[in-house]
Write a structure and sequence with these properties.
There is one protein chain. By secondary structure, the protein is of the alpha+beta class. The chain has three domains: about 5-50, Ubiquitin-associated (UBA) domain (Helicase, Ruva Protein, domain 3, Orthogonal Bundle), CATH 1.10.8; about 60-110 and about 160-195, Tetrahydropterin Synthase, Chain A (2-Layer Sandwich), CATH 3.30.479.20; about 115-155. The protein is built from nine helices and five strands; from the N terminus they run ααααββααααββαβ. Strands 1-2-5 form a three-stranded antiparallel sheet. The protein has a two-stranded antiparallel sheet with strand order 3-4. A hairpin with a 2-residue loop joins strand 3 (about 165) and strand 4 (about 165-170). Helix 1 (about 5-15) crosses helix 2 (about 20-30), helix 2 (about 20-30) packs across helix 3 and helix 7 crosses helix 8. The longest helix has 19 residues, at about 140-155. It is flat. The termini are far apart.
């Protein structure tokens, strides 16, 4: 059966697992949600979603400087324990996130961090563009296209929704979920700042 975006979203909401893994699980289980959850659990991924709600108050701040000092990133990534925060693999993950931020220039960590007025403005711009492009098409088609256009915009400005620079088949959020599953603790990108020489504050 066809694996729809809604089915993938539903599985993600139930498990907290990344979109690509959810899609793979649904394909492997022919669209059956319960079998897909079982498939994810066997791979050790579904439990990561449960860990994602736990408090993460340890962690590290990492710095990445690029281009001989013309671009710099500071990022804070939290874990639950100091033990994981000192782990070399965790620190490599944090550094990779810093490199990604330098390359991809996200504006926000999560979709929820984007101010409502910014989303409203983008929605209005997208609606006007689509109204011209899809003149004469039914409103329901325009609404569907609008959601797709907005999702694409979020993918450009939200860190966790951007394709990861080291593996563009996965989103940054998927990489974080994989690390949660592997390390057995919640991991949260708390905040970041990106400085580019000559940019106004």
């Amino acid at each position: 059966m066809a694996i729809t975006a809604d089915l993938v979203k539903d599985l993600r909401a139930k498990t907290g697992v990344g979109m690509m893994d959810c899609k793979e699980a649904l394909q492997a289980s022919n669209g059956d949600i319960e079998k897909a959850i079982e498939w994810l659990r066997k791979k050790g991924l579904a439990s990561a979603g449960k860990r994602a709600g736990r408090t993460a108050s340890q962690g590290v701040v990492d710095a990445y400087i690029h281009g001989g000092g013309t671009l710099g990133v500071l990022v804070e990534v939290n874990s639950e324990t100091d033990f994981v925060a000192r782990n070399e693999e965790f620190r490599k993950l944090v550094h990779d996130v810093a490199i990604h931020i330098a390359a991809a220039d996200p504006q926000y960590v999560t979709r929820e961090d984007v101010p409502a007025e910014v989303v409203a403005r983008e929605r209005e711009i997208a609606r006007e563009q689509l109204a011209k492009q899809m003149a004469g098409k039914p409103a329901i088609a325009i609404d569907k296209a609008l959601e797709g256009k907005l999702n694409k915009w979020f993918e450009g400005v939200v860190l966790l929704e951007q394709p990861f620079v080291r593996d563009d088949k996965k989103k940054v959020g998927d990489i974080i979920m994989e690390a949660i599953s592997k390390m057995g603790e919640n991991i949260v990108v708390r905040r970041f700042v990106r400085f580019k020489l000559g940019d106004s504050p």
